[in-house]
Amino acid sequence: MKTDAFALRHIGPRENDLHHMLKTIGAESLDQLIDETIPSDIRLKSDLDLDPAMTEYEFANHITQLGNKNKMFQSYIGLGYNAAIIPAVIQRNVFENPGWYTAYTPYQAEIAQGRLEAILNFQTMVIELTGMEIANASLLDEATAAAEAMALLFDVRTRDQKKANVCKFFVSDAILPQTLSVLQTRSTPIGVELVVGDHQEFDFSTEFFGAILQYPGKFGQVHDYAQFIAKAAENEIKVAVAADILSLAKLTPPGEMGAAVVLGTTQRFGIPLGYGGPHAAYFATKDEYKRSMPGRIIGVTIDTNGNRALRMALQTREQHIKRDKATSNICTAQVLLSVMAGMYAVYHGPKGLRYIANKVHASAVTLTNTLEKLGFEQTNTAFFDTIVIKADAQKVKEIALQNEVNFYYIDENTVSISLNETTSIADLNKIVGIFASAKGTQATTIESLSQTNHFPESVERTSTFLEHDVFTKHHSETALMRYIKMLERKDLALNHSMISLGSCTMKLNAASEMLPLSNAQWNNIHPFAPLDQAQGYQEMLAKLEKQLNVITGFAGTTLQPNSGAQGEYAGLMVIRAYHQSRGDHHRNIALIPSSAHGTNPASAAMAGMKVVVTKTLENGNIDVEDLRAKAILHKDNLSCLMVTYPSTHGVFESAIKEITQLIHDNGGQVYMDGANMNAQVGLTNPATIGADVCHLNLHKTFAIPHGGGGPGVGPICVAPQLVPFLPTNPVIPTGGENAITAISAAPWGSALVCLISYGYICMLGAEGLKQSTAYAILNANYIKEKLNGHYDTLYSGEMGRAAHEMILECRPFKEKGIEVTDIAKRLMDYGFHAPTVSFPVAGTLMIEPTESENLEELDRFCDAMIAIRKEIEEATLDNSNNVLKNAPHTLMMVTTDNWIFPYSREAAAFPLDYIAENKFWPTVRRVDEAYGDRNLNCSCAPIEAYMES
Questions:
Q1: What gap in Å lies between CA 71 and CA 196, rounded to an integer?
Q2: Mean of pLDDT over the chain
Q3: CA-CA distances (angstroms) from residue 183 to 146, 254, 346?
Q4: Which of 368, 373, 819, 924 has the most CB atoms less than 10 A away?
Q5: What is the pLDDT of residues 827-884, one digit of tens each?
Q6: Is the C-alpha dihedral spanning 851, 856, 860, 863 positive or negative?
């Protein structure tokens, strides 16, 4: 046995378990199982052409050597990205802690109370710093948050504006360039016309429904927008403001100026640059727009006992309900990063944030004063952290590079300098020295920082913020460490037990893949640094793109999309561009099977496509004849088919090549949703089945952790004809020769976490990847057979096999008064997170164990499900006082003197022997969803502030 092989550590079942598992399944070998699962006509004929697998030790050395090719310059480039200090207590206890980074999106609120509280802190921080009424749980990045603001303001137009088709949106020319590019991408398909200009010359025409301003502007100028916003309101034009969140500790919040939406990034609140991401964007708006607000919102409610509890409010998974009418689709949260940003605010508190903001501003003022004494002109009349200097840019650049310093060079005579939390007096003196040398004069030495403000009193913040207890009592490391641990104990993550979520692939996030993220050689690079300073990144990203090309069988890849659903959108926009390049502007019909992910129709609508739903057969497969009829009916306008493979029902449909050929014959392209790619890698691929583009969820198949609901990465891989249209970036060009405008803010999206997938592929190699897929299918079929006779599997392939996941039928249990939700909550008492509930079929559970779970864990899960099945049998329709309806059972319930239930405490909390060894206690009873939506509260107000009278 090669004990240093990474595959041995990543794959759960041991070699001596295989015979038992295959015997249970009824297969002679793993090869036989795969042959009975995947149609032979789509199997790969040869192994993937990848480099030999590295050991963990070899990869650690390799990634260190690669990281050393990145040059650690001091970057004062700005443009929405600033170096930040990550408090060590947060880095160690959140960023590097699997208790936080392996958790799933908090759909099961009772076992996610810690993470929900951390996000509530984030929302409170955003609400109070922006001066708004409601905030969400974060978005992907500032640029896409701006696009969501535009979409929200378009959605909430007045009735008269909608009737008159008012569709113009004003964009200040001070907007960040990457934000403008994303706005251009998002606006056209939904019918919005962008008008870019100087906000001081805007005429407030009735042709406009909204506007967006940058505060401070992209090169640092601070404007008082109060009059602009007031005049816009008089003309029924609603204004969004993209604001630097650190500046809001000193500057008047846009909410106090009357803004309708305030958005931005929280990257400078203790989140590493990471060559562009992942970072948590923020989004805040008025309460009246809450039903149109994108993304997830964490709200306060009560549990069965009337105690305070938290859960996701309003738009939870609403894309699966509203489908093409959804507002929360490609605006996925960045929970792990929002937790870090929120903890940064908890750690520093209001005084600490003011201190940091004052220091940054004082540094900018001091640098301005010193450079002006040397004879340089500084052109910003009011600023927070960014100054603009008139100088010979080329000469400054040459000397700056010699001193390992990056500025932003606006033109040949203008240099922009953005200072940050890390900037010291020594750093300021280095900058002064660079400019003095460029001018050929003697540098002046800075001894201390000026404490005068360089902006008018009209924009100076006077309101207080962050006065809630949570922001005032955790300022020592001991206090914060214990607070973080207290919250962590309320959450069930992958470091406790299997999370068998169908369609979500909660696999191992190996430590050897994660460790490089803490290395400054990787996490401290500005996304707009010159390419020759990021050679390690460039090599890694290019190699990852090549690896993904090999795995998918495609010709090109973009890593820019920073969520799975955003990958969907990117794929559709590339298809759209391809059709338009051929003069086929009319091709706008997207065929989508009724069983598809809800994100599919939502993404199609955002890409300006008209959704036509095709039927699904009783066995869960696509109705090929209905698809044929609709493809032929719409052949003149057919843009694409969106298909998930294996299907959302966990089956490899044998007709897939017929289906893709049918679309091609009628002029369309095939988009394959990569949600279930974990059942394909090394055995088949999207190109082989006939797809033209697919997105990959790197946070699923390729081992990036879910982080409690983000980060995610959703690159798209495309066939040769689509390569020219892959997206670019306005600052660092990327993509194809006919590239569409940006999909997200950074050139390579969330580049830092791409290291994880790169490590995953490098350490598994071709054979390890194929093994991982085979064992994912093995584990799923093992569970399927172990539960056979207790639960029916809703769909299976032609040979009776599941793919990497299966759907359990739970609807008949309603005869006993038991809903699928009761099973989900009862699983908490057994120490497990529920599988996916009621998707894609209402009243069912979709189970995906992944390849990382060992036999013992699979058996524990099956034992729990079988025990619950017996409990269902004991339930009666007319008596809801049972272990299932009362689940989950908290420690407080079980230890109370007043036990009022007709079953024992042991049955409630310790129904199987193994539980006592590692008991997980939910901290609240079942949450009341309806109560929380009726009494919506999304910040840290005490329970008394929103209780019904």
A1: 36
A2: 95
A3: 7, 21, 33
A4: 924
A5: 999 999 999 998 889 999 999 999 999 999 999 999 999 999 999 999 999 999 999 9
A6: positive
